[in-house]
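re: ur question from earlier - yeah i can do the single chain one, its not a big deal. heres the input i used so u can compare w yours
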Amino acid sequence: MPQSQGYMKPTHSNCKKYQFYHVMIAMNDGSSADGIITDVQEDGITMLTSEDVEVDENGNPVDEQRQYGYGRRRARRFRRSFFPLAALTALALFPYLTPYPYYYSPYPYYGYPYYY
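and the output i got, formated as tokens:
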């Protein structure tokens, strides 16, 4: 990840600032991870890293890979992981867009919400 475009070299104060936010980190070996920073120590950070899994209708993980998986759905699970601060090369916030409030809309709303 380049150092521009909102990416920065993570320091203890930056990690403390983004604690409890959904961030993306890059490591020295080229791998990256996204998750929520839960704890910041002097030597590293603890994150809840996300992973995608397929589960059946009972919530049990599915190991088989079939083309047509009826009764399956995707789920995201989080696992606690520790990352040393010296191994991190970049830290970036996920850009979540805020919705445009309806009362600042350029379109006139007469009688919002629409129900009779």
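The longest strand covers residues 44-55. not sure if urs matches, ping me
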